[in-house]
Write a structure and sequence with these properties.
Blueprint (H helix, E strand, L loop, with lengths): L5 E2 L3 H8 L11 E2 L11 E8 L10 H13 L9 E8 L5 H17 L3 E5 L5 H7 L8 E6 L17 H7 L5 E9 L6 H9 L3 E4 L10 H5 L3 E5 L21 H13 L5 E5 L10 H18 L13 E7 L5 E7 L5 E4 L13 E4 L1 H8 L5 H10 L1
Parallel strand pairs: 2-4, 3-4, 3-5, 5-10, 6-7, 6-9, 7-8, 9-10
Antiparallel strand pairs: 1-4, 11-12, 12-13, 13-14
Length: about 375
């Protein structure tokens, strides 16, 4: 990895950590300081700040990166076993494409080393750079965006925070297997965009649909990349966002979503974007982002490693016979009690890693009533 992409943490961050009590998170993390870059051997999670906001209305990202770290590193550890490093900040490149290049190369390197990057943005168009970091892995990936907007834009628009998804969908190499949105609000998205998401057999869940926050767990369990726009949280809980709205997730919902993302054995990168410290109130949004990251790390420490690490033979199998006499197989993990449903594929299908679809016990109950789960049907259209 090119360490020249990174600048060390500000002395003020290190000084603030040193003034905190023992056992706070900041004293357990390897930090990139002026004294040197962290040793990555044995590291499981790497925190990365990205000082880039040219993909939207520009704002002082350095102030935000400092505020989030200040709040994060004075939180106490949850008695975790994974090793964490903070690599510092990826500086703005001469062009925004230079920043994207640095992010994608860094993400690619870390994932190959089995290290999960946590990206603190910057604007959400950095999700595109994160996604491009998977190019060298030569596999299709699933992207989950927690956002009140789809950010599709048009193919003619430049790559911006409001149009990054169209670039992910259209540009080659196209490694995207599935896109899922959690928490969209209809009045922020045109009917054409909503119809397009459905036409592409992507998954989208309105804010009201996921009031029972446990419903998002199977969605996040199927993700490789999780992109979190802090603007999906209501303004009263997260005022430090230019597009903050009266409606949205509560702060505790955002933390629960992050924990589900961390618990997922499949998630290999996580990012929180669109924080503008200049309009934050009493560092409230920085505190929330810090807690979101804390809960993601908590989730990683609680991973059951039951899929894709275990074979199907170690699961309880349940078969439901549908109207056309086709069997629909469900699998339940003995380790975690989580459920999957299967699409039967020929062995050489390039999408075989997506053939076991995370689901809930509720999906199994619906299948018993001969109702085909929507996520199974949509996945079948892409896998067939």
């Amino acid at each position: 990895m090119n360490v020249e992409f990174f600048s060390p943490l500000e002395n003020s961050v290190v000084t603030n950590i040193m003034s905190c009590p023992a056992m706070v998170l900041g004293k357990l993390v390897q930090l990139h300081t002026e004294e040197g870059f962290p040793e990555l051997s044995g590291v499981k999670i790497a925190v990365i700040g990205v000082a880039e906001s040219r993909g939207a209305e520009q704002f002082n990202t350095y102030e935000g990166l400092y505020s989030v770290r200040k709040e994060l590193y004075q939180l106490f550890s949850g008695g975790w076993h994974v090793s964490i490093a903070d690599l510092g900040n990826i500086e703005q490149g001469s062009t925004i494409q230079d920043t994207y290049f640095a992010v994608s190369k860094t993400v690619s390197f870390l994932i190959k080393q089995g290290i999960i990057p946590i990206i603190i943005g910057g604007t959400q168009d950095l999700t595109y750079a994160n996604y491009r970091g998977y190019d060298e892995l030569e596999q299709t990936v699933n992207l989950v965006s927690v956002d009140s907007r789809f950010d599709i834009g048009t193919s003619e628009e430049d790559l911006m925070s409001r149009s990054f998804l169209s670039k992910i969908i259209m540009e080659e190499p196209n490694n995207l297997f599935n896109y899922s949105n959690i928490g969209y609000q209809t009045f922020f998205n045109s009917q054409e965009e909503i119809q397009l998401v459905d036409k592409l057999y992507f998954d989208a869940y309105r804010l009201g649909e996921v009031k029972d926050i446990t419903l998002v767990e199977p969605i996040l369990r199927d993700a490789d990349i999780v992109s979190f726009d802090i603007g999906c949280v209501r303004q009263s809980d997260a005022p430090g966002n230019t597009n903050a709205s009266p409606n949205g997730f509560y702060g505790e919902d955002a933390c629960a979503i992050a924990r589900y993302a961390g618990i997922s054995d499949k998630v290999t990168s996580f990012g929180v974007y669109e924080y503008n410290g200049a309009i934050d109130v009493n560092n409230q949004t920085a505190k929330l982002i810090a807690q979101i990251i804390w809960y993601f790390i908590e989730g990683v420490n609680k991973r059951a490693n039951d899929y894709p690490f275990a074979s199907k033979e170690s699961y309880e199998k349940y078969t439901v016979i549908l109207d056309d006499d086709d069997p629909l197989n469900f699998y339940k993990s003995d380790r975690s009690g989580r459920w999957w449903m299967e699409i039967n594929l020929i062995s050489n299908n390039k999408h075989k890693r997506h053939a076991l679809i995370p689901c809930s016990y509720r999906d199994y109950e619906e299948a018993l009533k001969l109702k085909i789960p929507k996520r199974w049907f949509k996945a079948l259209q892409k896998l067939a």
